[in-house]
Amino acid sequence: MNCYDDARGAYQRACDEDASPIRRLSGINLAIREALELSPSYSSALLNLGKLLADSGQLAEAVEKYQQALRLRPDFADAHNNLGAALAGLGRLDEAIVHYQKAIDINPNFVEARFNLANAMAARGNLNEAIAHLQKLLTLANARNDTAQAAAIRARVQKFQSAAEGKSRILKELQEVTE
């Protein structure tokens, strides 16, 4: 058994333990850190440590772990998506958008990354781009016959379309006032 197998085994043992949620989380955190001591290039462990840090509100630390994972595996779509989410949580939307897009470039069917990208675009005021990404998501949901997700996406599209129409009306009114 090599270090990689030892690291994976430590992580799996923590995940499989039958314990309270807090104790299990603590065990998983410890196992991930042990796995990284045994195999510092275990990119999935870095991703999972980043998730634990992000879930506990330590976004800057999570960003570091996701970046480490990406240095090891630049094509790690999950790490790009999670890095985007952590950056968005820190208010760094432009950087987040770059990583969501990279995740989608790697995996065009990555639903969560595309949804995150649409929301980030909307937050930046790019409602038409957000709608375009949601339309792609709708196509993916329909292809999977996921009617619940398709309905949720259609509702979000309508919300963004209403916002875009309102923005357009306001800009038109402002333009009329300044003329």
Keywords:
83% helix, mainly alpha, single chain, Serine Threonine Protein Phosphatase 5, Tetratricopeptide repeat, 9 helices
Notes on the protein architecture:
This protein is an all-alpha fold and 179 residues long. It has a domain of 105 residues: Serine Threonine Protein Phosphatase 5, Tetratricopeptide repeat, CATH 1.25.40.10. It contains 9 helices and no strands. Helix 1 packs antiparallel against helix 2 and helix 2 packs antiparallel against helix 3. It is elongated and about 65 Å long. About 3% of the residues have low confidence.
Quick gist of this model?
The protein has 179 residues and is mainly alpha-helical. Helices cover 83% and strands 0% of the residues.
Secondary structure class reads mainly alpha
Average pLDDT confidence is: 84
* CATH fold field value of the domain at 74-178: Serine Threonine Protein Phosphatase 5, Tetratricopeptide repeat
CATH class of the domain at 74-178: Mainly Alpha
CATH architecture label name of the domain at 74-178: Alpha Horseshoe
Characterize the main sheet: none
Shape: elongated
Q: Which stretches are poorly predicted, pLDDT < 50 over at least 5 residues?
A: 19-24
Number of H- or I-type helical stretches = 9
Distance between the termini: 76 Å
| DSSP strand count | 0
Question: What helical percentage do the residues reach?
Answer: over 70%
What would you report as the Rg, rounded to the nearest angstrom? 20 Å
CATH homologous superfamily label of the domain at 74-178: Tetratricopeptide repeat domain
| Series of H and E elements | HHHHHHHHH
